[in-house]
Amino acid sequence: MSTETRDIVVVGGGTAGCFAAATAAGEDLDVVLLERKSEEEGGHIACGDAIKGKSTFPDVIDRDYLREESFTNENIQRAMFMNPKGENYDIPFQGEYGAVIDRKRYGEVLLEEADRVGADIHYNTVIKDVVQNGRVTGVTGIREGDPVAYEAEVVVDAAGALSLLQDKVDFEGTTYDTNVDYSQFCSAYREVIETKEPVEYDDAIVFKPTDELGYLWYFPRTDREINAGLGFQMNKPPMKLVDVLKRDLENRPEFRDAEVKDKLGAALPTRRPYDSAVAPGFMSVGDAAGHVNPTTGGGIPGAAKAGHWAAQVAIEAIADGDVSESALWEYNRKVQTDFGQRFAAMDLYNIFGSAHEVDELTDVVTALPGEMIIDLMGKKGETSLSLTEKLTTSITTLVKTRGHWRTLYDAYKVGQLASQLKEVYDEYPTTPDGFEQWRDRRDAIMDEVYEVTGAEPKY
Ligand SMILES: Cc1cc2nc3c(=O)[nH]c(=O)nc-3n(C[C@H](O)[C@H](O)[C@H](O)COP(=O)(O)OP(=O)(O)OC[C@H]3O[C@@H](n4cnc5c(N)ncnc54)[C@H](O)[C@@H]3O)c2cc1C
């Protein structure tokens, strides 16, 4: 078996892996990125292709080039919620517009860019195991049919949802989060569809509730190329995704005689980020560490940031000659005090939802005035109402939501607990020593969440 020695080995050539590799190579480290797909297939990933927060992509690749090549629709001004029982809701985007991308081209450009700044990319390389001796020292696998081994100071696990590497590492004596279960994931499927005529919602990302706490979406890459897909929570009975999507599309005039250009399915985490994603010589990033918004499924911006931060921390640790858990810990802190706290808070709404039937939640949403929904979601809206309108709205709402007051009150309490949770995440410890105490504080809030919602414990 041939063995290569590098500073950093990155497993997985998606968003997280490319940003990790580009960051390390940009600082002149010897880095190899290992991707199981061929070069032609590289970047082909199941995704809804919608991005909010593109300006937060780390500046280690040519972002203008990425944008020119793959941002096919930069005019997403609103999220539209299609309500099967009543009025649709528009949530206008504040500040920066969102975008929908050509996901394959986006993935190709990231790989090109990682290569351009100096990372080696080995395609057709399937990693099957890790090498460890008190710490992770490398990986082994098959490259173009032959066994291969890579030694490194740090292995970055960017192998996506349900990463195989985590099953192989001995995490005994570390704080790495192993409280991971399939029920904390969502199974999703999407098609890219070319319509005969332009759609009316090319300035919106469109969502629609489905059974089993899932949602169906239409994200317009252009006014005639639509990414349509859906998913369901794996703690619910399985849903026939392909059939459900087919039925939905058949009922919509804009998809009549449309052509399906691409189909792909995948799992994605709909859980809070891993409490700790580091172990000696090992760091997990992106989907491999649960870095996805558990209510929207948006994982691209989190993966990009996590890959970048992990590499930054690894570079420093390698320079200091110490790749222990403590030396890599700062990466955890960066994640948890940034998008980690937000995603952990959003997870509470996911838990709240799991304790209610979709039908009931739709009834509640239907009974609430649009302005109030926008307000509940933390956007402006209610301020646009006059005092008289507010009073009228409140009285009408009380009457319409009769029978759901308990649910609304519980939602209100979950909102309060979400705020408390964010504060705890803001105080994520600076070293592993404070971890257990921090986790106890967080878990006390989670106990209250389960009590208020009546939901089964998710973790
Ligand atoms: C259907 C669907 C719709 C989504 N919609 C959106 C959306 O609209 N907006 C958004 O922001 N996010 C969306 N997401 C989530 C987003 O796609 C992910 O969060 C993001 O791609 C995560 O990037 P990643 O680099 O962590 O993992 P991935 O992109 O999954 O990359 C992992 C890479 O690792 C490789 N790999 C895996 N195992 C091995 C191995 N053993 N050896 C070598 N290589 C390996 C894979 O081939 C792959 O290239 C969606 C996800 C799904 C499934």
Quick take:
This protein is α/β, with parallel strands linked by helices. The protein has three domains: 2-73 and 94-176 and 271-338, FAD/NAD(P)-binding domain (3-Layer(bba) Sandwich); 183-269, D-Amino Acid Oxidase, Chain A, domain 2; 348-453, no CATH class. It has helices at residues 15-26, 63-70, 103-116, 165-168, 241-250, 300-320, 325-354, 358-367, 370-376, 387-400, 405-426, 435-453, and strands spanning 2-11, 31-34, 50-51, 71-76, 78-81, 89-92, 98-101, 120-122, 125-132, 136-143, 146-157, 185-194, 204-210, 214-220, 225-233, 259-269, 278-279, 282-284.
| Rg, Å, rounded | 23 Å
Low-pLDDT runs of 5+ residues are: 377-385
Output the structural class: alpha/beta
Fraction in beta strands: 15-25%
Full CATH superfamily name of the largest domain: FAD/NAD(P)-binding domain
CATH class of the largest domain: Alpha Beta
Number of helices: 12
Calculate the mean pLDDT score and round it: 89
What percentage of residues falls in helices of 4 or more residues? 25-40%
Q: Mind describing the biggest β-sheet?
A: 8 strands, mixed
CATH architecture of the largest domain: 3-Layer(bba) Sandwich
Topology order in helix (H) and strand (E) letters: EHEEHEEEEHEEEEHEEEEHEEEHHHHHHH
Query: How many separate structural domains?
Result: 3
Number of DSSP strand runs: 18
Gross geometry: globular
* N-to-C CA distance: 40 Å
Distinct small-molecule ligands in the complex? flavin-adenine dinucleotide
From the 3D structure, determine the CATH topology of the largest domain: FAD/NAD(P)-binding domain
